[in-house]
Inverse folding.
């Protein structure tokens, strides 16, 4: 199951970090704006199996707590 999440979401949690990102829609737009702008990945993502296991376990445990 975790491998499916990895295939589905791999690379999709990147974002542009900078002063004004209102017109940024992709990596190229972000990097073309210049040095203060950076294309970053969120700390928790689906790009490696270890983090997928962590995120999957976190959601599984949080769902169980909701029904108690």
């Amino acid at each position: 199951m975790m491998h499916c999440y990895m295939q589905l979401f791999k690379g999709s949690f990147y974002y542009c970090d900078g002063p004004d990102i209102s017109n940024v829609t992709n990596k190229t737009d972000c990097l073309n704006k210049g040095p203060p702008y950076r294309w970053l990945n969120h700390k928790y993502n689906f790009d490696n199996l270890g983090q997928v296991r962590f995120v999957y376990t976190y959601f599984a445990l949080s769902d169980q707590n909701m029904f108690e």
The first strand starts at residue 14 and ends at 17. The radius of gyration is 16 Å. DSSP finds three helices and two strands in the chain.
